What we know:
The complex is a heterodimer. Chain A is of the alpha/beta class. Chain A has two domains: 28-106 and 209-243, D-Maltodextrin-Binding Protein, domain 2 (3-Layer(aba) Sandwich), CATH 3.40.190; 109-200, D-Maltodextrin-Binding Protein, domain 2, CATH 3.40.190.120. Helices cover 36% and strands 21% of the residues of chain A. In chain A, helix 3 links the parallel strand 1 and strand 2. Chain B is mainly alpha-helical. Chain B has a single domain (48-271), classed as Orthogonal Bundle (MetI-like fold), CATH 1.10.3720. Chain B is built from 13 helices and no strands. The longest helix of chain B is centred in the N-terminal third of the chain and has 33 residues, at 51-83. Chain B is globular and about 65 Å long. The chains are: A alpha/beta, B mainly alpha. Chain A binds chain B through residues 9, 12-13, 15, 65, 67-68, 70-71, 88-89, 92, 133, 135, 138, 140-141, 159-165, 173, 176-178, and chain B through 19-20, 23, 26-27, 30, 113, 117-119, 133, 135-136, 217-221, 224-225, 232-233, 235-239, 241-242.
Amino acid sequence: MLGTVLATALILSSACASPGSGDDERRSGLRIAAASSLSGVFDELARAFESDHPGIPIEPIIYEGSPTLAAQIRDGRRIDVIASADEASLTAISAQLDGEPVAFATNGLVIAVPAGNPAGIRTLADLADDELTVVLCAASVPCGASARALLRSADLSIVAASEEQNVKAVVAKIQAGEADAGIVYATDVIASAGALEGIAVEGSDEARTTYPIATLTGAGNPSAARAFVSWIRSPTAREILARAGFGAP
Amino acid sequence: MIGGTRPASVGAIPRAVLVPALAGLSLLLLPVVGLLSRADWSRVPGAITSPEAASALALSLQTATAATAVCVILGVPLAAVIARSRPSIAGLLRALVTLPLVMPPLVGGIALLALLGRNGLIGGALDLAFGIRIPFTTSAVVIAQAFVALPFLVIAVEGALRTAGTSLEAVAATLGARPWTVFLRITLPSIAPGLLAGTVLCFARALGEFGATALFAGNAAGVTRTMPLAIYTAFNGAGVSQDSAIALSLLLIVVAIAMLLLLRSWRSERAG
């Protein structure tokens, strides 16, 4: 605590706040950033990886919307591995990628409603009801882009009561009872442990999300980073992903 | 009260104090310099005149004005009550009023949801009885802004009231003025500078409000997406939209500076 205060004061008074001369640099474990929709499952993956690779500790996973993670990396946040929910976010930081991204999981969209489905929603078209409070991801984040593609292909337009910056914020608004429904990933419904109910959407197979993973240049730990990226396609990792509801690429 | 020996001039401050002072000033100003350096000036005009920016700015100005009006209507009487209470009660009231100031705005947003949300303490009843739902509406934005901005107004006005004292009011009362007349003709004019400063602070705080709004009011274009939320949304998008986040930030800074300049010119007019 005192150390942080002193370090901050030192950085400011010496005016040499170069990127990375903060907390990030002291850490030695593998730094992994993952899309918001991977929350939870990556904690589990990290624990399994650590027990398979005792010499490689993993720092607490950083979860954010994929474009936000890409922006942070571009602005100098030191990350060894990024798992994104879209290709666009990785394309935006292609200069910092170490090799080509590889797909490791897929996910599909569902309509999420509170357990018991109080509003009696059955289809995507039911969401167009003005009486319903529907929350979506913003179009700029992967879950929002996919949801809009899905609505477009069904020829529906929905006025969202709120456009959230990541899928977990949509989940939270439905779970808190503030929204009647939202479009989220099938895995989010599984992760909600019964608080949410998922309603399958026709045509959602065409709008499936593929998750690419990549190591970053300037990774403090390039060999560990590569080890994680190849391990995530191992049977052990596949099984953990499948249990959380993620499909194989 | 501190009995006062003050240094005769600024030169009396130890030289070494200048180092942290300059570092402090840099901490405040250099980020703005950074923002200016990051701006893609060829894109700025397009970004700040886009329909999205115009809608967010209009919504911000409307909601901040409404929230400021709410704060003045509720805050001046509250400040008057605090200023004229017994010290023990005033101290307690002051602490309660300061609470939203020390509370992170996100916590304020959760608290507002817990009170006015659909499953909230009052919100649930409002929904059942009248079908009124506050979250995700422009009213929710105004409520969130008023919640975070009200303490600024109350503290400024209360300070002004205590400084002004009660002697003039007492004289007016002995001359037969009714309480309302005293309040409107004596009290309010005597605290005008404090009230104005408090109002501007309150407006600025409402204009910048983000955390409570994001949680309680949500983020929908034209309804609840004020400038700070538009900036956040643009920043979270990939690629070009980051430039517009910077352009929108500059626009918000310009609006805030314009407010301060207005205040200064108004004050110096009065003083001169």
